[in-house]
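User: I've been trying to design a sequence by hand for this structure and keep getting stuck. Would you show me what you'd pick, starting by listing the structure so we're on the same page?

Assistant: Good idea, let's start from the same input. This is the structure you sent:
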C-alpha cells in the first residue's frame, strides 16, 4: 500500500516537473522577424513553476534594429504570473545609456490587458497578471514613448534586454492523466481497506 502511494506521488511529481528555460530572441540572431502578433516568437507553454528567460536586443546595429519585439506563450492553469524586463542598468534609477523600456501584455486577440513603464529596477518594466485558466498571451517589448506598441517607435538603442516570465504561481488544471492517477490511488486505497476488512 505504501509503495503504491509513493509510486503515485512520484508519477504526479514527474508530471508537474519545474523547468527554467533560457532562450535567445530569434530576430536578434538573424532569424524570423517578431514585429507583429502573427510573427511573435513562440515561447511555448509555461506550466506550474516554469520560468522562461529570453535575451533580446533593441539596437540599430543588430538584426531587427529598434522594431518592436513580440513573444507568445500559453499557460495551462490558474494564477498569477510575472513579467520582468531588465535592460541591464548599471546604475538603477539613472541610466546613462538612456534605456527606458515599456512592456505590454495582450490577450490571444491582441487586445492590451496590461502595460508598464517603470515598475521594475530603475526605468525597467515589470507587471503581473492573473490567468483565469488555460490561455494564450502575447508580450510586447518596446521603448518609452510608444504606448500604442507600434512597429517602430519609442526610446531605442539599448544593446540587450532580458525578459523573464515567471509562472511559479500558476496552479495547473489537472490533466486527464492526473485524474487517472488519482483514480488509481483511490482504487488501491479502497482495495486495501476491503482486504483489511475481510481479514
Ligand atoms: Ca529585437
Ligand atoms: Ca522586432
Ligand atoms: Ca520604463
Amino acid at each position: 500500500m505504501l509503495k503504491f502511494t509513493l509510486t503515485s506521488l512520484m508519477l504526479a511529481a514527474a508530471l508537474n516537473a519545474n523547468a527554467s528555460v533560457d532562450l535567445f530572441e530569434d530576430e536578434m540572431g538573424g532569424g524570423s522577424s517578431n514585429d507583429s502578433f502573427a510573427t511573435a516568437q513562440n515561447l511555448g507553454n509555461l506550466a506550474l513553476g516554469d520560468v522562461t528567460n529570453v535575451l533580446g536586443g533593441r539596437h540599430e546595429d543588430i538584426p531587427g534594429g529598434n522594431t518592436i519585439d513580440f513573444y507568445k506563450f500559453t499557460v495551462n492553469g490558474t494564477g498569477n504570473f510575472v513579467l520582468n524586463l531588465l535592460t541591464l542598468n548599471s546604475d538603477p534609477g539613472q541610466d546613462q545609456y538612456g534605456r527606458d523600456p515599456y512592456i505590454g501584455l495582450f490577450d490571444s486577440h491582441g487586445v492590451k490587458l496590461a502595460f508598464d513603464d517603470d515598475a521594475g529596477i530603475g526605468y525597467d518594466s515589470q507587471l503581473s497578471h492573473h490567468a483565469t485558466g488555460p490561455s494564450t498571451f502575447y508580450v510586447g517589448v518596446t521603448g518609452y514613448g510608444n504606448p500604442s506598441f507600434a512597429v517602430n517607435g519609442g526610446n531605442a538603442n539599448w544593446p540587450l534586454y532580458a525578459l523573464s516570465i515567471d509562472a511559479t504561481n500558476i496552479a495547473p488544471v489537472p490533466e486527464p492523466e492526473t485524474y487517472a492517477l488519482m483514480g488509481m490511488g483511490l482504487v488501491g486505497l479502497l482495495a486495501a481497506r476491503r482486504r483489511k476488512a475481510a481479514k
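That's my pick for every position. To get oriented when you compare it with your attempt: The chain has one domain: 18-174. Residues 9-16 have pLDDT under 50 and may be disordered.
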